[in-house]
Amino acid sequence: MTRERTILLKKLEKLNQYEQNVLEEIQEERNALKKRLKDLDYIEGRHFVPSHVTINRTSHKKMEAYYEATQLLKNNPEKVFLAKEITAHVEQETGYKISQFAYFYKKLQEIDPNIMRIRRGCYGYKSEKSTW
Question: What pTM does this model have?
Fold first, then answer.
């Protein structure tokens, strides 16, 4: 009888551990969804665009693209990105295809003047961490 009892106790312990892991995963996913909703609200409110920058009749996807590009550059100030890398990242994250990167970069620089063109086709974020 004690052998069966120990087996049942071990199974119960495993179930409790499994339940705890599932609850943690659900909480992580809930937090990720809340963060994404907060980001979308921020983008829709255009709070990241300074008031002096005019963006007329801009679609939501385009605003999301500007936001993703500025976040990519801001979060990696020590890295230099190729225009292709920025374009690929924006398209992957938002689904927005950048047709003319020069125009897109011009608007990015109006939104955040710390976004710099380092040399032809290479862009970075100017900060204390910048090594270029």
Answer: 0.59
